[in-house]
Batch of 3 targets.
Target 1
Amino acid sequence: VVYEVVETPIFNVTRALFIGNLRRPLNAIGFQNYLKQLTADFAIETNVSGMEYAVERAWLNRTRTHGIVLLNSENAAVFIRDRLNASTYPFPDEDLKLKREFEQREHDRYSTELAEYEDLLKKYRESQSDLITHIQDPEEIDLDDDCRDRSPTLIERPSKQPEEPREFKVERLKLYVDYIPVKVINQWIFEEDKGPRNGKWKVVYENIDNSLIAQHKLLEGDFIPKYDNRRNHPR
C-alpha cells in the first residue's frame, strides 16, 4: 500500500499517529529510538518546566510497511508529525548499515547452503560409485555371507544449487503521517497481529453522516479477527 503524502493532515489532532510508506529492511528498535529522540528534541525546543514528553506506544506491522505511535501529548504528536511527514527513513547512514548487515547475512546463508549442497553431492557420487562396484563385483563389497546380498545405500542427487546471495534493493518512500483516534489503536493492532499473516490493510478517512471517520480496512485476506470492545482503551 502506498499513501499519497499531503502537507495538511486529514484528521483532527490527537495523541495518536499513523505512519505509512515504510519499507523493509527496517530496524524496529532503531525506529523507536528515533521517535524517542524526536520527543526529546521537542522537550528541548518547548522548554516547558515540569512537562515530560514521552512515546507511550510504538508499533510496527509484520512487514514493516506502517506503524502506529501514541504520544502522551497532542503537542508532541503535532511536532513529530511535522518532522516525519514527507521525510524518508532510515537515513542514508542507517541504510548503509542495514545494507552491510543484509549482505553479510546473505553471504553466510549462501556459504552454509553451498557447503551442505557440496557435501550431499559428494555423498551422492560416492553412492553411485559403490553401486557400480557392487554390480561389477559384488564379492568385493562385503565378504560377510549375511551382508553379501545387500545393495549399497542410494542417495538422491541434490535437486538444485543454493540461490546466489541477493542484492540489497529497497525503494524508500516519503513517509505519510496523519492522526488517528486514540481509542482505535488497540483494536487496529489486535486485528493486524491476530489477522491473516498475508493480510494487507489500509487506513482510510471517510465522511459518514457529516463526520470524518478513520477506517481500518482489510484489502487482502480471508478474515478479520473479532475484537472485544470491552477492553480498556487509551484516552
Target 2
Amino acid sequence: MEPIKELQQGEDIAIITTNYGTITVRFFPDAAPKAVENFITHVNNGYYDGITFHRVIQDFMIQGGDPEGTGMGGESIWKEPFEDEFDVNYRNFRGAISMANSGPNTNGSQFFIVQGAEVPEDIIKEMKR
C-alpha cells in the first residue's frame, strides 16, 4: 500500500457537519470514479442534507447516506446500483470513507466512515460477500 499524498490545492473535498463536529472528506477519483461522482453529485443536489448516521458501531464505523434512516433506502444518481470499485492503495483505515452496500455491485447512496484503527482481514472478507 502506497502512502497517501498530501492534499493538493484545488482538490475537491466535502465537509460533513454533524452534531458532534465536522468531518472532512477527501476524494480519489482515479481509484473510484463512479463513487466519487455519485457522492459529489448527491452533495451538490442536497440529497444528504439532514440525513443521520443511522448505524454507529463504536471503534468500527459510522454509516449514513440513507434518506429513510433505516439502512434500507437510498439510490445512486443513476437511479440504479453501480459496480464496486476497488484499489489496493486505498484500503479501509481509520477515517476512510467507502460505499456501503448489500452485496457485490449494489452501491447506491449509503456510505460508511471507518472508525477502527485498521479493519481486520476477516471483516474485509465479510464485507466483500
Target 3
Amino acid sequence: MSGNAKGEAAKSWLVSFGDLLTLLLCLFLFQFSNSNIKEEQEGPKDGVTHSNNMEDLSEGISEYGTHERGTLLAQLEDGTPVVESVFVEDEFALQDYTLNEEGRGRLKNVVIPEGYGLQRISLVTFSCEESSPEALRWLQATGRALSIQRQLIDDGYERAQIAVQVLGPHCFSKRYPESKEGMAALVRFSLKAMT
C-alpha cells in the first residue's frame, strides 16, 4: 500500500469516527431532552411542585384565603371538611428551616375528628424574608416544605398522601394585608367521611 493510500484510509477513518461521535452526541441530546419533557409531564418524583408562574401563584394563594397562626377545623367550598395548621415566619429556624418545638408539637398533635379519615394532605410554603435575595427565599420555602414533609412522614403519614407546593418568594401578607402575620406554611388535612 502506498503512502498516499494510507493517508486516504486514515482520513476516511477519522471522518467516519467523527460522524459516529456526532451521531452519538445527537442521540444523547435527544434522549436527555426527551427525558426532561417526560419528567415534566409526569410531575416531580419527590412530590414537590415549585411554582414560578404567577397564575399558579395566584390560584394557590387564593385557594387558601386569609389565615393566621393556629390550627382549626374548616370546610372547603365543595363541603369537604379540613383541618388546617398555619405556620408563620418566626416558627421556623433560619439555619435548617425546621419548625420550632411549638410548631412541631402543633403539627404532631393534629386531631382528625371521629368518623372521618384522611383523604390527602396539602402543604403550601412561602418565604416572606423581604430583605433576602430571591434565590435564598426559594431555598427557604423549599427547605420548609421538605422539613414539614419529612415530619409528616415521621409522624406516620404516607408520602403519597402529601401534595407539596412551593410558592417561594411571594410574601403572603403583602397580597392579603388583612392577614396579621406573614404565613410561611399551610398544612391542610382534607378529610373524608368514613362509612
